[in-house]
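Re: the request from the purification team.
They wanted to know what the chain is likely to look like in 3D before they choose a buffer screen. I agreed to run a prediction and write the result into the notebook, where they can find it.
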Amino acid sequence: MSKDINRVVLAYSGGLDTSVILKWLQVTYNCEVVTFTADLGQGEELEPAREKALMLGIKPENIFIEDLRDEFCRDYVFPMFRANALYEGVYLLGTSIARPLISKKQIEIARNVGGDAVSHGATGKGNDQVRFELAYYALEPDIKVIAPWREWDLASRTKLLSFAEEHQIPIAKDKRGEAPFSVDANLLHTSSEGKVLEDPAEEAPNLVYQRTLSPQQAPDQDTVIEIGFEQGDPVSINGEKMGPAAILTALNTYGHDNGIGRLDLVENRFVGMKSRGVYETPGGTILLTAHRALESITLDRGAAHLKDELMPRYAELIYNGFWFSPERELLQTMIDKSQAWVSGSVRLRLYKGNATVVGRESPYSLYRQDYVTFEEDSVYDHRDAEGFIKLNALRLRLATERNRRFES
């Protein structure tokens, strides 16, 4: 491994793994470490990360902690939801969409402090190493990347703990044993993987779920809410205007209280293996349902169907780490163009794990009651359908006639 590193910007959570990485970088590369901790709404106090970095010898001016919740929602989550993005039909991409923002901030800090390298705590088996590093290289092609899990010999929890004890890194008591599972969290979701979840035949224990009540525990009384949209983005709940992070926070509360947003998934990782994850995306699940409902009355059929055809490709790009790729940006331009008339409101009934649309309206609606009514109307001539059907049937009739001639 190259040792010509002077200053490295580390994505730092303050947990055991990244604290060990911090010290390992100092010992192995004899370099200055700059820490970056992002508040993405993970629900944890971030000041302990600052205190731990100071204790490990990081200069105060080299500790960066930034509240990114609004930027995360406005510039990453909401653009993704304009596309109704679902990986493999179900996964709302909560971990995937956070990585490009963290990477972007690391590169910005590296430029500002004269850093010549960046580092992350992703393992060599997962998708996150790919997501971080594709983003780094897209933004700063010549940046050096240090991925400790691919370099060091701390291949077991025992070795990791021994290194921590040797270098006087505090270890939370629950870290001394085998953790039951690993968790990634942000304002959009929580993701739980590993240990007690590794056998996909076994039901996930209740302790895995942190953001939602079970549908059985949810109230017997339903809750009706109304979400307002402007050009595809949510802007209000029950008539109250809110900022991006406040909107998602409020929807998370509604989802939690009504047992909405749980997913137990075996997915195909970009690196080739299958993995089992348990995801909770309470607010995002409500938001997706509402957004599709509003699109159902404001998008032309051709535009809506084209979006649905392209969505799996768009979702796969995000999952695989290509947020900053030309093709994702091209798709985003098309998606954003489709949202010009997606403004209005959607009412949903939340009840025991379900978010059910009960009403949708928009000043730009393409739904015309005078055309679809079963009562008498003056705008639609039923006789027009005959020619339409015959023209569409023409190729079918010709094919059948041909087949009969040569098969008899």
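For the purification team: The domain at 183-299+341-361 is CATH 3.90.1260.10 (Argininosuccinate synthetase, chain A, domain 2).
Please add any questions underneath this entry.
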